[in-house]
């Protein structure tokens, strides 16, 4: 199926890893099924898969390990103006 975002690529079934914010905390879920556009990388997650991810995280099931990660906040480059309503 043609990607609705870029209109160029098609979506392919893949197993991916992705970070999510669920119930106010960040988690990484690995090896779940999703459709990914080969051209722009847009990820589409089926509703039943999203619900299963939420359930797994809320129940704390599966092999949980703690990861340490650096968090960076994006700052606008000098001279770049944000698109804000006037």
Could you give a short description of this structure?
By secondary structure, the chain is of the alpha+beta class.
Give the spatial strand order of the biggest sheet: 1-2-3
Q: Considering DSSP H and I runs of 4 or more, what fraction of the residues is helical?
A: 10-25%
Number of strands: 3
Round the Cα radius of gyration to an integer and report it.
Answer: 17 Å
Instruction: List the total number of helices.
Output: 1
Q: What is the general shape? A: flat
Instruction: Provide the succession of SSEs.
Output: EEEH
Q: Would you identify the regions where 5 or more consecutive residues have pLDDT less than 50?
A: none
Sheet with most strands: 3 strands, antiparallel
Strand content: 25-35%
Q: Strand pairing plus helix content: what structural class?
A: alpha+beta
pLDDT averaged over residues = 85
Distance between the termini: 40 Å
